[in-house]
Amino acid sequence: MPSAAQIRAARALLAISAAQLAELADVTLRTIQRFEASDGIPGSRGGTLERVVDALESEGIEFIGDPLKSPGVRLKRVRR
Question: Cα dihedral sign for 52, 55, 59, 64?
């Protein structure tokens, strides 16, 4: 699972707002804000973090590196 830093970086790379990511992932804006404000890998229940990851990956984001020691993201393809 990605770290909070990777989620923030992925969103910045896609040039989307937290509200847009929340809509893509079908979660609340507050959830995205909580994930991005956390240290390390955000805590999640019921597959919420997985939905955020799936939404970012569907937009072309690839999470690379160790999420805690060397977190990174890259754009695999141009967004639709």
Answer: positive
pTM assigned to the model: 0.90
Per-residue pLDDT of 36-59, as tens digits, reads 999 999 988 889 999 999 999 999
Burial of 77 (0-12, 13-18, 19+ CB in 10 A): exposed
Tell me the CATH number of domain 4-75, given options 1.10.260.40, 3.40.50.2300, 1.25.40.10, 3.40.50.300.
1.10.260.40
Query: Which residues fall within 8 angstroms of residue 80, CB to CB, at 6 or more apart?
Result: 59
